Amino acid sequence: MSATLQSQTIAFIGGSGGCGLSALKHAVAGGHTCVALCRTPAKLEAVFPDRPANLVIRQGNAHDADAVAACLTRPSDAGRLVDAVSFTIGGLFDPKKFTIDDPDVCKKGIASVLQALRTLRLAGAQGSPLIAAISSTGISNHGRDVPLAFLPFYHYGLAVPHADKKVLEERLVECPERWVAVRPSFLVDGGKPDRKIRVGVEDPHKGIEKKEVGYTISREDVGHWMYENLLAADCTQYNGKAVSLTW
């Protein structure tokens, strides 16, 4: 595990469900300052009825660069950028049509984050936040990272969301920011905190550094791993790389 840092300020883009919500819960419990963007704030307010002082919820759309920018500076100092960005947005999958409600959801979302950072820096904001972005296994250019039995479903059934994730990763590789692409195996519900998480590592240019292939992992455990190893930790070993997570 990476070395845990002192109190961080973390922006959550897509923190109202799934992996993002899991990471947010751990960050709030850990005492970090959390700024969460949510289209419907009532959803997050219901999760945190005690209204913790270290959680700021801002209403807005992840595809609106201005709304995203409002989450990327510290609440106590608008001249300082947050320490990390949890980017976990995704589309609603339609199993009948093998597509998602917005085929460009991640492409547009990461464009908003990168544009917001550029705009804030032009206005004088300082800092170099880590972008920890949820991607997917099955899109590597350097080798198979999913079980053979999953290949038909990944290749045909998930072609649309995977194309969006590939663009997300391409945008990260091209940008000047610090980033880590998190590639979970097939996501399921139900955390298993005592179950070992295997971590594969891939450099976008040099290829696979450590290969791990597995079937599933829970959203809860992915979010917990992101919190402990990326958002609230020194993740130098993963900077600029894709990490695959599986049980």
From TrEMBL:
Domain NAD(P)-binding: 14-230
Family to which this protein belongs: Belongs to the avfA family.
SUPFAM superfamilies with a match to the protein in the record: NAD(P)-binding Rossmann-fold domains (SSF51735)
Pfam families to which the protein is assigned, alphabetical: NAD_binding_10
Protein name per UniProt: NAD(P)-binding domain-containing protein
Organism whose genome encodes this protein: Neonectria punicea
